[in-house]
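Appendix B, Record 12. Input sequence as logged:
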Amino acid sequence: MKRSQDRILTTHAGSLPRTDKLARLLIERDNDLPVDEAELKREVESATDWVVRQQLQSGVDIGNDGEEARVGVRVIISPPVVAAAH
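Logged structural output:
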């Protein structure tokens, strides 16, 4: 476990945005539609690598996977619904 005696370490909890392609694949799988599992695995790995790099480059001490492999509320709710809520 990463520790510090000099400062409070930062982390992130929760879901981060996904690419459109990954969101589509996750929704299709969640709806029991046929999905190319190899393609889904590649997309999840690529998206996870990217969000971890972004967190670490932004100064987050302990990055996480951003829940890239999970369908989240941001994936399910379409942009027009989100825009209407504001």
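DSSP finds four helices and no strands in the chain.
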